[in-house]
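Give me structure tokens for this 280-residue protein.
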Amino acid sequence: MGIKKVKPTTPGRRQATFDDFSDITEKKPFKNLTAARKQKAGRNAQGKITIRHRGGGAKRKFRIIDFKQDKFDIPAKVASIEYDPNRGARIALVFYNDGAKRYIIAPDGLKVGDNIMSSEKKIEIKVGNRMPLKYIPAGIEVFNVELKPGKGGQIARGAGNAIFVMGAEDPYAQIKLPSSEIRLVPNKCLATVGKASNPDKRLIKLGKAGRKRYLGFRPTVRGTAMNPVDHPHGGGEGNQSIGLKAPKTPWGKKALGVKTRKSKPSDKLIIKRRKSKKRG
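Here you go.
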């Protein structure tokens, strides 16, 4: 992928950068692996808003992605690299030798015509190959990693994300996440060698509020711009500070630098917590 700039014909386009889609080989998705995607605008089954600032956006079709890649020891050939509007990384359409066709998250550097394989045994350490963590040497980058064997990849699926394997001993493998957290996962969990495609996505500047709306995001209003009845930061004449010891959410709970992870059984598997970014 490359980043392109355009003529600054408007203030929004002056700041904006765009994806040139040079790595895309097929424009239309494979029809049998798409599904309708209903826009829920951040609301649950009761119609209550559970995620704020969502709604609108361009209409999309959902691509059915195979996060498990559980067709073991059957070679697959990459037929196309495609754009997926529902994620930052590219997806690859792969044709298995037994006739099956599936979408997978494409690793960076994968090309049309390449052969990949998924196995529960030790196979070649090659970009796109998928195998248990216990067979992957220390220092190798992996992505789309399982947290429970057979559940399918759950971590490091975003554009450009990668996890470093630090070592493996029965029954766990030690990995370093993109957040700098170091944790243990069962060494039977599958991982794909390489890093997720489209690492340049982080360089794209939207340039104007309208492009954010195309993505399905609605405006976020500052608490200090509200009235006291609407937000703990509200009230005052003109540009007032929040007047509290610590920033708070609209519901009165502390907002920044506060750990939100509840006590979970997997806490004992975390060796080193991620670095928190405190502000204010």
